[in-house]
């Protein structure tokens, strides 16, 4: 599923955004670490660029999300996570123990979860499904403890 990221500068320009080094770094970091939390993005952006304010990183995350270059997911009880895989209505597996997140394809083909039983007149464009459970590592850890 991993593809080489297009030229991040071109991505920004196509989206109508000014190309800035924090935005380029934020795109590259999120591309290499799917489902990364904002504070971890800030750490990795600083490793690349030196001093960058947290606000600058958060702003870059917000504008990139607003124009659809990134998707923001917010599993309950977890800080917001960011990923570059957008527009395919994929879902997530979330480990209750360690917070690990994995992508899962939509359960029954192309965006079937958009077929709500009753849409109450809403124009629905996205469905968010989180499957909660325990990842293999946490299962193994529990088995050892037990
Ligand atoms: Zn886990
Ligand atoms: Zn994902």
What do these coordinates show?
The chain is α+β, with helices and mostly antiparallel strands and about 150 residues long. The protein is built from five helices and six strands. It folds into two domains: about 70 residues, Arc Repressor Mutant, subunit A (Orthogonal Bundle), CATH 1.10.10; about 60 residues, Ferric-uptake regulator, C-terminal dimerisarion domain (Dna Ligase, domain 1, 2-Layer Sandwich). About 35% of the residues lie in helices and about 15% in strands. The strands form two sheets. The protein has a three-stranded antiparallel β-sheet with strand order 1-3-2. A three-stranded mixed β-sheet has the order 5-4-6, with no helix packed on it. A hairpin with a 5-residue loop joins strand 4 and strand 5. Helix 2 packs across helix 3. The mean pLDDT is about 85. It binds zinc ion (2 copies). The site of one zinc ion has 7 residues, from loops.
CATH fold naming of the largest domain: Arc Repressor Mutant, subunit A
Q: How widely separated are the two ends?
A: 36 Å
**Which CATH architecture of the largest domain is right?**
Orthogonal Bundle
Secondary-structure-derived class:
alpha+beta
Radius of gyration: 17 Å
CATH class of the largest domain: Mainly Alpha
Number of helices: 5
Number of domains: 2
Can you list the ligands bound to this structure? zinc ion
| Range of helix content | 25-40%
What does the average pLDDT come to? 87
Low-pLDDT parts are none
């Amino acid at each position: 599923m991993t593809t080489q990221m297009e030229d991040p500068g071109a991505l920004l320009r196509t989206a109508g955004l000014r190309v800035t080094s924090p935005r380029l770094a934020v795109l590259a970091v999120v591309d290499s670490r799917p489902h990364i939390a904002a504070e971890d993005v800030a750490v990795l952006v600083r490793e690349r660029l030196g001093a960058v304010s947290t606000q600058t990183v958060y702003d870059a995350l917000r504008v990139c999300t607003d124009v659809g270059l990134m998707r923001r997911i917010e599993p309950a009880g977890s800080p917001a996570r960011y990923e570059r895989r957008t527009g395919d209505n994929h879902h997530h597996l979330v480990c209750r123990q360690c917070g690990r997140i994995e992508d899962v394809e939509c359960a029954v083909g192309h965006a079937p979860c958009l077929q709500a039983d009753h849409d109450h007149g809403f124009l629905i464009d996205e469905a968010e499904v989180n499957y909660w459970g325990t990842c293999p590592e946490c299962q193994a850890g529990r088995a050892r403890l037990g």
